[in-house]
Amino acid sequence: MDLEQARENLFKYLDHEIADKRVIEAMQRVPREVFVPPQQYHSAYDDRPLGIGFGQTISQPFIVALMLQALELRGDEKVLELGTGSGYEAAILAELAQKVVTVECIPELAESAKEILDRLAYSNIEVHVAGRPLGWPEEAPYDAIIVSAGAPTVPQVLLEQLTLNGRLVIPVGSRWQQDLLRVTKLRKGNEIENLGGCYFVPLIGEGAWEN
Question: What does the alpha-carbon distance between residue 28 and residue 13 come to, in Å, rounded to a whole number?
Fold first, then answer.
């Protein structure tokens, strides 16, 4: 199957599964093939994660779409992403929000993602190399936070970087299996919704896994 046919099949599937058509349209504007290694090029529109080196992956398109839908973005938000990886999700976020701050703990991936995002002329994305503390407090608060790595619990430090009524989407569980949670920060306390099972690489840092 050629790349264009695979792309068409993927978006036909996502169109049935994802209610927020704004998310689908944003994903259609971002060429996933430029974010995968050359040897993975012909698998770019398979609905599965693909290796990008350093033990990391570019996430399955359906999971990306599900997480982005859960953020409920309308276009004027400032969003924090933890786990830049290839830069693919950051590019889609840039189509959906006003500003994206993305952090990556592996410097080589952060540099590679920044090069690709600059080449695609995204001017509303900041890429940073993550420190030990989770998130990027310098730019807080954020209207939405998305975490592309699994945490043992919902990190309090991320909730502190979220605006009131802001949404945090994060996989929470063990290193081998997590539930995808949407946490809405409310004045009366946090509302937590379980969006289903998933598997992500571990989130490393203070407030998550130590190593």
Answer: 13
Q: Which tens digit of pLDDT belongs to each residue from 24-76?
A: 999 999 999 999 999 999 999 999 999 999 999 999 999 999 999 999 999 99
Q: Which two tokens stand for residue 92?
A: 């889609």
CA 51/CA 59 separation, integer angstroms: 9
What is the rounded distance in angstroms from the CA atom of residue 62 to the CA atom of residue 27? 11
Contacts made by residues 114-118, CB under 8 angstroms, sequence distance 24+ = 114/87, 116/34, 116/35, 116/86, 116/87, 117/87, 117/90, 117/91
Instruction: Provide the domain count of the chain.
Output: 1
The verdict on residue 209 lying in a domain is no
Q: Are strands 50-53 and 56-58 parallel, antiparallel or unpaired?
A: antiparallel
Is the residue at 211 inside a domain?
Answer: no
Host domain of residue 90: 3-198
Look at residue 208 and tell me if it is in a domain: no
Residue among 43, 59, 86, 123 flagged as catalytic: 59
The Cα 103–Cα 121 span in angstroms is 19
Comparing CA positions, the residue from 199, 192, 195 lying closest to residue 178 is 199
180 near 196, Cβ under 8 Å? yes
Instruction: State the CATH number of the domain containing residue 42.
Output: 3.40.50.150
**How buried is 112 (Cβ within 10 angstroms: 0-12 exposed, 13-18 middle, 19+ buried)?**
buried
Q: What is the pTM of this model?
A: 0.96
Our answer to whether residue 112 is catalytic in this structure is no
Residue 49 counted as domain residue: yes
